[in-house]
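Z., the sequence and structure:
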Amino acid sequence: MKIVTLVLVVFVILSTSFPAAIVKAADTGDTGDTGDTGNVGVTCDARQLQPCLAAITGGGQPSGACCAKLTEQQSCLCGFAKNPAFAQYISSPNARKVLVACGVAYPTC
């Protein structure tokens, strides 16, 4: 239980350390550094995925709010996976289970 608490604390600290969100460009087709061409106009913000944190770190079932945010942020997952602060969460076995449960494809970056 202590490790889960520690991981949660670290995630919150890291997610608030990167407050600048990435907004995908609408007219140029530029997708920033996410490496994916997803929904135009999506604001890539890892803090939006906080409803998924318990499922990813604890291995439980994702909530409806988690699945909704994953679907919304799907085009941003490659960018999160390339960011050292978030990579361990995106590449974890539990994250894959959460993505499958939510019907979101695992990013191929």
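The beta strands are 22-23, 43-44. The CA atoms of residues 78 and 108 lie 7 Å apart.

Let me know what you think.
H.
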